[in-house]
UniProtKB/TrEMBL annotation, chain A:
The protein's name: F-box only protein 42-like
GO-annotated molecular function: ubiquitin-like ligase-substrate adaptor activity
UniProt cross-references to InterPro entries, sorted A to Z: F-box-like_dom_sf, F-box_dom, F-box_only_SRC, Kelch-typ_b-propeller
Residue ranges, compositional bias (Pro residues): 376-388
Source taxon at top rank: Eukaryota
Automatic annotation (TrEMBL), chain B:
Chain ranges of the SKP1 component POZ domain: 49-106
Claim: S-adenosyl-L-methionine is one of the keywords in the record: no
Region (Disordered): 25-46
SMART domains, sorted: Skp1 (SM00512)
Protein name: S-phase kinase-associated protein 1
C-alpha cells in the first residue's frame, strides 16, 4: 500500500473500500449522484449495482428475504403534497410502473366501490409518496387498466369501472380509452384511435422497442363482454394499431393473467382466468418475429412444459408477478399442503389431467378450476363474469359461428387449432376430478388427525400441531426461465423463506415491481382466507429485499 | 486486508508472518482442551501487548482487547513470544483512537449497521458513543478507515465507512466533489452520457 506522509483523503482508499462505502447509500438517487462524481466513482458504482442486483437475485431464489413498510425508515424530509394527508393510497387493481427513482401508481378501486383516477408518485429514495397534481385531460376513474413506461411518458390503456351498488345488476363499464402522461410536462393527453382495440380490462402489456404488445383481457363485445386471447399492438411512433398474424394453436382466452417480457422477441403469458370457474394453469411463450411491424410475419405461440409442479402456487390469477433476472416471482398465499411437506393437491391433479388434454394442446380449463380444493369458493373475477348463456361468443380470431350451448360437453374447452368453443357447463368434466380431490382431502384430514393422535399419545414434546396451519401467510413462488428458449420448459423451484417469524399477509390484486435490488409491492386486498383483524395495519407499500447483514 | 469487494469473507493477509503454526492454532482455539496442553504453552490471561506506531511510539494494550484486530491476532498466534506488534502504517494519533475503539467495544460488540443507511445523521444509525467517535475531521476519518482495513477490525471499518456514506447521502455530485476534494474528470459528453443512463444495471 502506498503511504503518504500527509493525511489521507478519500482518493487514497482502495476501490474495494470505496465500493463498501457506496454499498451504504441509497441505490436510487444517491447512487446516481455518486456515479456522476468522477470516472473512478462511476466504475465503483457500477460494481456496487451489480453486487446489489446479484445479491437480490440470489436471495429471491435461495432466500431468505425480508420485508418492510416504508414507515420503518427515517428519511430525508419527505415531500408530500398537501392533498396527500387527506387522500388515501390504499387500493387494488391499480397500475404501477417504474421510472428512474420513482414508482408511479394510477387508478384502482376499493372494496367500497370507489374507483380512482389519481396518479401517485412514490419516491424510492426517500420512501415518501405524493399524490401528483396533474394537468390535461384526466382518464376516467378506473381499475384493471394497463400502464407502461415509454421514454419519459406513461401510456395507459383500457380499464374497468365498478358498477354502482344500486341499481342492482348493473354491468361494469369497460373502457377503450388511451392516455399518455408526460412526466416532464406533468400532463395527461387523451388519444382516440379509429382502429384501436375494443374496450378491455384485465389485460396485460409489455413494451418491445417502440411497440406495445397487449394481450387478452375481458373485452367488450356488443352488449356483453367476454374473455379474449387477442393480441393488439400499438406502434407508438407511427400512432398505428395493428393485429399480428398468429399461429394455429393459441392459448385460451383469459384475463387476470400475467405477461412477462423475456426479451424483445419473446413474451411469456402465465395462467389467468377464462371466465367463471375457468382458471387456467398453463404457461405460454409468444415469439415475435424480428421485424415486429411486418404484416406478413407470423407470431407463434407455444405451450410450455411446466416442471417442479410441487412448488407452484395453486393458481396464478390476480396474483402479483414480476420478473427478476431469469426468474418470475409470484406472490400467492402459502399452499396448505406445503406445510405438511407432501405432494401438493395441485400437482397431483395437474399431472393426471395433463394426459387428457394433450391432444388439445392446452390443459383443460375446468381441470384447472378443480385444482382448487372443492370446498373453497373461487373468488369472483373482478369484473362481473359473462353469463354463460349469453350469445355472440364468436371465435375471436377465426370467426367461428356461434356454438350451440345446449349441447353437453365432455371434453375440455379451449383452443383447438384456432377454434374457440367455450364451455356451457364449465364443471362438467371437472366433476370427476372434484370428487377425487374431495376424497383426497378427506384422506389427508384423516391421516393428519391420526398422526396428531399418535403424537399426542406418545407425548412427543414440541411436535408441531398439525391443525395449526399458516393460514394467512404470503409465500414467494419462483418460476425459473433458463430453459424457456432452449427447451420450452419453465421450472418452479422452492421459493425463498422469510427472515424472522413475522410474515406478511397475502394480498391479491396488488402491483409488484422490481426496483433497485428490491421488489416494491403496492396496494392489494386481503384474500378471503385472511384471518387477520381489520384493525391490523395494512401498509400501502411493502418492500421486499435481501437482508444485508454483514458484507456481501 | 480487504483485497477486493467480493472478498469480505475471511481476510486475506498479504506479507504477514507465515502461518506455520496452523495446527497449533486450531488446538489453541478450543479452550476446552486447555487443560490438556500444559507447560510452555500456558497463556495467562493478563498479557499486555505493545503496539508500535509509525512514529515508533509504543502503547500497551490488553492482549484480549487487541485480538479484535485480526492482524494482531494473526501476528500474535504466529509468535507468542513477541509482545511488541509493529504497525508501521498507523500514525500514533490514529492508533490511540483505534485502541479507544477496541477498548470500548471489547465487551460491547456493536450492532450490525443497516444498509442502505436510513439516515444521514449517524446518531440515528449507531449508538451515541459510536456517533461521537466518528465526529472527527475528514483526514482523521480516512486514516481511521485505512487503519481499520490494515489492522482488519471489522466493526471499526463498518462504522467509519458508514460515516462516510452518511456524508454522501442526499448530496448532489458537485457537493460530493467539493466535500471530498475530488476532481471531475468527465468530459461534458461523458457526463451527459452518464446522466442519461437509465438502466440500473445491465439487463440480463
Amino acid at each position: 500500500l502506498p503511504r503518504f506522509t500527509e493525511m489521507a483523503s478519500i482518493n487514497d482508499l482502495p476501490d474495494s473500500i470505496l465500493e463498501f462505502i457506496l454499498y451504504h447509500v441509497s441505490p436510487y438517487r444517491d447512487i446516481k449522484s455518486c456515479s456522476l462524481v468522477c470516472s473512478r466513482w462511476h466504475e465503483c458504482c457500477r460494481h456496487v449495482k451489480e453486487k446489489i442486483t446479484q445479491l437480490f437475485v440470489d436471495a429471491i431464489v435461495t432466500g431468505p428475504v425480508c420485508f418492510s413498510s416504508s414507515s420503518n425508515c427515517t428519511t430525508d424530509p419527505p415531500v408530500l403534497s398537501s392533498s396527500s394527508t387527506t387522500s388515501n393510497m390504499s387500493r387494488f387493481s391499480h397500475c404501477a410502473c417504474m421510472h428512474g427513482s420513482s414508482m408511479y401508481v394510477f387508478g384502482g378501486c376499493t372494496l367500497t366501490h370507489t374507483t380512482f383516477n389519481d396518479l401517485w408518485k412514490i419516491n424510492l429514495t426517500s420512501r415518501s409518496r405524493e399524490r401528483v397534481v396533474t394537468t390535461g385531460s384526466y382518464p376516467t376513474p378506473k381499475s384493471h387498466a394497463v400502464m407502461i413506461v415509454w421514454n419519459d411518458s406513461l401510456l395507459l390503456f383500457g380499464g374497468w369501472s365498478t358498477p354502482y351498488v344500486y341499481p342492482l345488476h348493473q354491468q361494469g363499464i369497460l373502457f377503450d380509452e388511451f392516455h399518455r402522461y408526460d412526466i416532464k410536462l406533468n400532463t395527461w393527453t387523451s388519444f382516440v384511435y379509429s382502429d384501436g382495440p375494443p374496450a378491455t380490462a384485465g389485460h396485460s402489456a409489455t413494451l418491445h422497442g417502440d411497440v406495445v404488445v397487449i394481450f387478452g383481457g375481458l373485452q367488450k363485445r356488443g352488449d356483453s363482454s367476454g374473455s379474449t386471447n387477442d393480441i393488439y399492438c400499438l406502434d407508438i411512433i407511427n400512432e398505428a394499431w395493428f393485429r399480428p398474424r398468429i399461429s394455429e394453436i393459441i392459448p385460451a382466452p383469459r384475463y387476470g393473467h400475467s405477461q412477462i417480457k423475456l426479451d424483445d422477441r419473446h413474451v411469456i403469458i402465465i395462467s389467468g382466468c377464462g371466465g367463471y370457474n375457468q382458471l387456467h394453469n398453463d404457461i405460454w411463450l409468444l415469439t415475435i418475429p424480428e421485424n415486429i411491424c411486418a404484416p406478413r410475419e407470423v407470431w407463434t405461440w407455444k405451450l410450455l412444459t411446466i416442471e417442479g409442479t410441487n412448488f407452484m402456487p395453486k393458481q396464478v390469477w390476480c396474483n402479483p408477478t414480476c420478473r427478476v433476472a431469469d426468474n418470475v416471482v409470484v406472490l400467492a398465499r402459502r399452499n396448505e399442503s406445503e406445510s405438511e411437506g407432501r405432494m401438493g393437491l395441485a400437482q397431483m391433479l395437474f399431472r393426471s389431467g395433463r394426459q387428457n388434454s394433450q391432444r388439445f394442446g392446452v390443459p383443460s380449463a375446468p381441470l384447472a378450476a378443480a385444482v382448487r380444493p372443492a370446498v373453497e369458493q373461487p373468488p369472483p373475477p373482478p369484473p362481473p363474469p359473462p353469463e354463460p348463456v349469453r350469445t355472440n361468443f364468436a371465435g375471436s380470431s377465426s370467426g367461428q359461428s356461434t356454438p350451440s350451448f345446449s349441447k353437453y360437453r365432455e371434453e375440455s374447452p379451449g383452443h383447438v387449432a384456432g377454434h374457440h368453443r367455450p364451455s356451457v357447463r364449465p364443471n362438467a368434466s371437472s366433476n370427476r376430478e372434484r370428487r377425487l380431490s374431495m376424497l383426497s382431502k378427506y384422506e389427508d384430514r384423516l391421516r393428519a388427525a391420526m398422526l396428531k393422535e399418535q403424537i399426542s399419545k406418545s407425548g412427543v414434546v414440541g411436535a408441531p400441531r398439525l391443525d395449526q396451519k399458516p393460514a394467512c401467510s404470503q409465500a414467494v413462488y419462483v418460476l425459473q426461465l433458463q430453459k424457456v428458449l432452449s427447451d420450452g420448459i419453465v421450472t418452479w423451484v422452492p421459493g425463498p423463506s422469510w427472515q424472522g417469524s413475522v410474515v406478511p399477509h397475502p394480498r391479491l390484486l396488488c402491483s409488484l415491481m422490481l426496483g433497485h435490488g428490491e421488489l416494491v409491492l403496492c396496494g392489494g386486498k386481503r384474500t378471503e382466507e385472511c384471518d387477520c383483524s381489520a384493525a391490523e395495519p395494512w401498509p400501502p407499500i411493502l418492500y421486499i429485499y435481501a437482508p444485508r447483514i454483514g458484507p456481501p | 486486508l480487504i483485497s477486493s469487494f467480493d472478498d469480505f469473507g475471511p481476510p486475506v493477509h498479504l506479507n504477514i508472518l507465515p502461518r506455520a503454526f496452523d495446527s497449533l492454532e486450531m488446538s489453541e482455539e478450543s479452550k476446552s482442551s486447555k487443560e490438556e496442553i500444559k507447560g510452555l504453552d500456558d497463556e495467562p490471561d493478563e498479557i499486555q501487548l505493545k503496539l508500535k506506531s509509525q512514529e515508533s511510539e509504543t502503547y500497551p494494550i490488553d492482549k484480549n482487547i487487541a485480538m479484535m484486530s485480526e492482524l494482531i491476532k494473526t501476528m500474535w498466534e504466529g509468535d507468542k513470544e513477541e509482545h511488541e506488534i509493529p504497525l508501521p502504517n498507523v500514525k500514533s494519533s490514529i492508533l490511540k483512537k483505534v485502541m479507544d475503539f477496541m477498548k470500548y467495544h471489547h465487551t460491547n460488540p456493536p450492532k450490525e449497521i443497516e444498509k442502505p443507511l436510513k439516515s444521514a445523521n449517524m446518531h440515528e444509525v449507531v449508538s451515541e458513543w459510536d456517533a461521537n467517535f466518528v465526529e472527527v475531521d475528514q483526514e482523521t476519518l480516512f486514516e481511521l478507515i485505512l487503519a481499520a482495513n490494515y489492522m482488519d477490525i471489522k466493526a471499526l471499518l463498518d462504522l467509519t465507512c458508514a460515516k462516510v456514506a452518511s456524508m454522501i447521502k442526499g448530496k448532489s455530485p458537485e457537493e460530493i466533489r467539493k466535500r471530498f476534494n475530488i476532481q471531475n474528470d468527465f468530459t461534458p459528453e461523458e457526463e451527459e452520457a452518464v446522466r442519461a443512463e437509465n438502466k440500473w444495471a445491465e439487463e440480463s
